[in-house]
Design goal:
2 strands, 3 helices, mainly alpha, 4% strand, two-stranded antiparallel sheet, single chain
């Protein structure tokens, strides 16, 4: 895909970027090259390839998903100004 300098001006305006007119051709060429690369990558067959969460072969150290604290809802709601059926009642802020 080949972008023109007019396309670059529109993109720069939408992104609120200030680009010097002397650099418009360079930006048009570089952005066109990026879009061409994206088009090539779009045509690749990725069947059977699992998505990666990280480009390196790493795993996250996660803690076990287990309850570590006791339920203290009654104690917290005892000091709340207004509660009802286990919920906190707050003033209406949106009409």
């Amino acid at each position: 895909m080949s972008l023109t300098t007019d396309d670059v001006k529109k993109i720069a305006h939408l992104a609120r970027l200030g680009i010097v007119d002397q650099q418009m051709n360079d930006y048009a060429r570089d952005l066109s090259a990026m879009l061409d690369l994206m088009a090539q990558m779009d045509n690749l067959d990725t069947t059977g390839i699992l998505p990666m969460a990280h480009p390196m072969d790493q795993t996250q150290r996660l803690r076990p998903d287990s309850v570590t604290e006791t339920n203290q809802r009654e104690a917290f709601q005892a000091i709340a100004p207004q509660t009802e059926a286990g919920l906190y009642l707050v003033p209406k802020v949106i009409e």
